[in-house]
Amino acid sequence: MDDTPKIGPVTGGPADRLAEVLSATGSVWTFLLMFLIVADVIGRSFLNSPIVGVAEIAGRSVVAIVFLQLAGAILSDRLTRADLLLQLIGARSPALRRAMEVVFMLCAALVCGLIVAGGWAESAGTFATSEFFGVQGVFTIPVWPFRWLMTLGAAFGGLAALLAAFRIARGARA
């Protein structure tokens, strides 16, 4: 059995509350997207009348939902990773495991920072040029809200990873 102290969710701080709100927004969005897809399937299968634009909305929504829920996943220690090696190391050396977790979070913050750096100008550009996605004349959807959600979600995710690294380093929960 692993005797390493578990890093569990921390609640109460402003960062944790913001992460929960963003995550809840992503969850509600997921529910609404599922409702839209089911309605499209019913309309397509039984009424011979599909809902136009469902594929475009779903394709953009999935990415936005992931980035909305990123900070919450990091701060509640639900970020997906293969932790078999961490468990084996943690059984022998909890300090080494904690150090590896800190490095993991710092790498996550770096990746999020790179996404923000690459996405900031692109997000601003899609708003300025009124870029749309879809088939003109059939269904189009503006790209800028999805780009900004991805960029801002990565920014919050990066800050959450830095906060988690700090918390793990001082022995607190993520």
From TrEMBL:
The keyword Cell membrane applies. The chain crosses the membrane at residues 21-39, 51-75, 102-121, 148-169. Keywords: Cell inner membrane, Cell membrane, Membrane, Transmembrane, Transmembrane helix, Transport. Residues 33-170 form the Tripartite ATP-independent periplasmic transporters DctQ component domain. One of its GO terms (cellular component) is plasma membrane. Its main location: membrane. It is found in: Cell inner membrane; Cell membrane. Coiled coil: none annotated. GO terms for molecular function: transmembrane transporter activity. Belongs to the TRAP transporter small permease family. The complex comprises the extracytoplasmic solute receptor protein and the two transmembrane proteins. This is TRAP transporter small permease protein.
